[in-house]
């Protein structure tokens, strides 16, 4: 086991996620009960569920599930899909398998911590920051300047966690072409794809490049993290062969019930994603009204995609104290910017992650507002 640093987000969640009264920093869309998911099943899905045997499953994933996953892409067939126990296993094994000492990686920041810390334990890593002053825009020029002869991978996350940023189609296509021209693997975390409101979803990386890896999962846009089903799609099957052999040392195979439930969900994906987009769309005016009530304390913008965003806190006590006091005194959980600090780039110190994909945020916002109103002035 490599010597990895503390996973700050998970440590913070271990303390607060299930103890706080209100979870306002959730990164997933609203989930649904098992009964409601099963009600979406077609005849084949229900038969698979009712006759399910609890034996080992195929390492690459249930063939019917891989077939349904492939249908979410333009140029992918089931043989181009490898399933994992969530997105974290997929990310971890991809970095551990495809990178070696002497390689170089470019990683966008801020990011999901493992996207930075796992490759840092293997090889040299350069960070390229999404800058708040540029509306978190993708700077392809900065990525190109960071490339070296030893660069083997560029790792990105769009829609971005925690900022909710989504690059322009022009910048996205340019990045894919740049990686292809240099023989660099593009690792694209696409777990929030499908929750865009005002913009179309970007083409998935593996549809644009035969060497790119597209990471996805049932946890975020679909709102089913309890299934622990993720996958990598890549049209370079030699890469998937290597990842399959690595998976033999971790989970070996996925949970049989989870695979069938994921199959049911993906066959109903249009309804699930439409439901979750409606929740986000319904919530945004609620959050907008809340922040309008505190113009001296907060600057906020809704996510361009996904269900998380990264507002600014301007109070004199600072965002770390605000988040700590808020959860301890009012039971409202947010993630302060220290969770997203990077070893590679400067990152904002006055931000916090906000989740906008859960039902009925009003009680949490009321508790937050009451807590703000009873404090001494800190702006």
How would you characterize the overall build of this protein?
There is one protein chain. With 379 residues, this protein is an alpha/beta fold. It folds into 2 domains: 128 residues, Aspartate Aminotransferase, domain 1 (Alpha-Beta Complex), CATH 3.90.1150; 215 residues, Aspartate Aminotransferase, domain 2. The chain contains 14 helices and 14 strands. Strand 3, helix 6 and strand 4 form a beta-alpha-beta unit. Helix 3 runs antiparallel to helix 11. It is globular. It holds the Pfam family Aminotran_1_2.
Can you tag this structure with a few keywords?
three-stranded antiparallel β-sheet; seven-stranded mixed β-sheet; 2 domains; alpha/beta; Aspartate Aminotransferase, domain 2; 14 helices; single chain; 379 residues
Q: In short, what is this structure?
A:
With 379 residues, this protein is an alpha/beta fold. 39% of the residues lie in helices and 14% in strands. A 7-stranded mixed sheet has the order 2-8-7-6-5-3-4, sandwiched between helices. The protein has a 3-stranded antiparallel sheet with strand order 10-14-13, covered by helices on one side. Strands 1-12 form a two-stranded parallel ribbon.
